[in-house]
Amino acid sequence: MADPKGFLNHGREVAKSRPVEERLKDWNEVYVPGSLLPIISKQASRCMDCGIPFCHNGCPLGNLIPEWNDYAYREDWAAASERLHATNNFPEFTGRLCPAPCESACVLGINQPAVTIKNVEVSIIDKAWETGDVAPQIPERLSGKTVAVIGSGPAGLAAAQQLTRAGHTVAVYERADRIGGLLRYGIPEFKMEKRHINRRIEQMRAEGTRFRTGIEIGRDLKATDLKKRYDAVVLAVGATTARDLPVPGRELKGIHQAMEYLPLSNKVQEGDFVAPPITAEGKHVVVIGGGDTGADCVGTAHRQGAASVTQLEIMPRPGEERNTASQPWPTFPMLYKVTSAHEEGGERVYSVSTTHFEGDEDGNVQWLHLTEVEFIDGRLTPKPGTERKIPAQLVTLAMGFTGTDRENGLVDQFGLDLDERGNVARDDAYQTNVPGVFVAGDAGRGQSLIVWAIAEGRSAARGVDRHLTGVSELPAPIRPTDRALMV
Questions:
Q1: 189-245 pLDDT, tens digit each
Q2: CA of 53: how far to CAs of 48, 108, 212, 331, 425, in Å?
Q3: N- to C-terminal Cα separation, the chain
Q4: What confidence tier does 474 reach under pLDDT thresholds 50, 70, 90?
Q5: Structural contact between residues 123 and 40, judged by C-beta atoms closer than 8 angstroms
Q6: pLDDT at 374 over 90
Q7: What pLDDT, on the 0 to 100 scale, is given for residue 150?
Q8: Where's the 4Fe-4S ferredoxin-type domain (predicted)?
Q9: 487 pLDDT exceeds 70?
């Protein structure tokens, strides 16, 4: 145990953010560099090393949280990094992007603010990179087997790294021009600078993983031809079919899916554009969808100089504290969350639904018409007399995703079965109905968190390894049927 009285002597203290007026002038991460290390030992000491650490139940990776908390408290960074990497290939990603269900399940959180697990995690990995404790793990021998991984998001990268370290020859195919999937082109720079991806890719290259960018399986290369080249295939193509909003005026110019809008600002940071082809500069922006992707659109619009930003959510505003009756500990509660993007301004409107869009004579969107809604007999129903319109010269749709891409032909060319929710069906070993073809991440699970994607990639890698060799020592932290701890 780190410090038996740590949780009594120290309160919760989190990473400091840079002033809003400063960070809106750049695209760097919002946190003050180096602000965590001076406080993280005390924060780690608050961990009680519980007899039953429920933080393990909150995290699908099975992270050894009390162990690396103890090492961080003692400032044994090498040991902390080893324990951290024992269950997580990319803690610098999860430490920045995960909503931390582990903290919702922290036993201390029953009657005190939970341990800052996420901050401890990112402190350990940042220190490990600084001290050179993150090194390539090159396999001692090669198996002679080959594996193609389609998709380079967190699930694909985790599967590829695990299989490479097991001795297989792995090639990762990515349809975009750079590796990283939505980590690269969906997550804004202010949430995670892309240098973190770049150095992991270099580590994986040194280990032997090969990367093929700009190749879309199904279009540029037939799935059947790919399967002939490799002994096994892992599909980690995500759930990229965005939910649309079929209301009058949807065809107007200036209405875009979030994943049409967000990648362009990332490409500006990569040097591909001087200015993004779709910009919020000087415009009244409306973001439809109250989740993390919507918040990313809000923060991006602020940095592009929007005249105003309004975020709409059809559901009622959540409470600011856990409702112990409906969302008891240690489940992951739905709470009112103020992200760094929301700190920067804008308006959030709950319990409203878009009825239609109105444009100008040139076909550009100018107004969004909405109505308030309420639950009646379990259904969201418009409230009479609440209709109004708000200015909207750029609208982004951030309403989630409905399944994996069917348009590129990959699913049909492989002959894959889908489940009732439009995800690729798989068995207990993550294998699809096609022998030798496996699926990991959102493509098989549906839209989920980054920790679930990495856990799926690690688990699918074990299934592939057993398929190729008959036995595997790779860990499998979750089963395909496991779900988050929620009511």
A1: 999 999 999 999 999 999 999 999 999 999 999 999 999 999 999 999 999 999 999
A2: 9, 10, 41, 14, 32
A3: 31
A4: very high
A5: yes
A6: yes
A7: 98
A8: 38-69
A9: no
**Identity of the residue numbered 449:** L
Backbone angle region of 386, left / alpha / beta, with phi > 0 → left and psi within -120 to 50 → alpha: alpha
Q: What is the DSSP letter of 90?
A: -
Can you say how many angstroms the Cα of residue 420 is from the centroid of all Cα atoms in its chain?
A: 24
Q: Is the dihedral of CA 480, 416, 240, 95 positive or negative?
A: positive
Nearest to 186 by CA among 3, 2, 453, 439: 453
Which residues lie closer than 8 Å to 474 by C-beta, 6 or more apart?
162, 166, 458, 461, 462, 465
What tokens does 177 get?
A: 């021009």
Tokens of 44: 């780690």
What is the per-residue pLDDT across 173-196, written as a single tens digit (0 to 9) for each? 999 999 999 999 999 999 999 999
Asked if residue 346 has pLDDT above 80, the reply is yes
- Phi first, then psi, for residue 453 (nearest 5°) are -65, -45
Within 8 A by CB and 6+ apart from 98, the residues are 118, 449, 450, 451
Residue of higher predicted confidence among 150 and 378: 150
Give every CB contact of residue 82 below 8 A, 6+ residues apart in sequence.
133
Give the whole-angstrom CA distance, residue 276 versus residue 52.
Answer: 50
| Residue 357 β-bridge partners | 368
Cβ atoms 69, 43 nearer than 8 A: no
Tokens of 271: 């040097």
Q: What angle do CA 65, 62, 337 make, to 5 degrees?
A: 75
Q: Which residue has the tokens 């203290």?
A: 13
pLDDT digits (tens, 9 = 90+) for 106-126: 999 999 999 999 999 999 999
DSSP string, 250-316: TTSBTEEEHHHHHHHHHHHHHTS-SS-SS--TTSEEEEE--SHHHHHHHHHHHHTT-SEEEEEESSP
Q: Residues 125-138: what's their mean pLDDT?
A: 97
**C-alpha 261, offset from chain centre:** 17
Angle at 98 between CA 426 and CA 455, to 5 degrees: 30
What residues contact residue 421 under an 8 Å CB cut-off, 6+ apart? 403, 446
Residue 195 burial by Cβ neighbours in a 10 Å radius (0-12, 13-18, 19+): exposed
Percent of the chain past pLDDT 70, that is, above it, reads 99
The amino acid sitting at 235 is L
Per the structure block, which two tokens stand in for 98? 């995960």
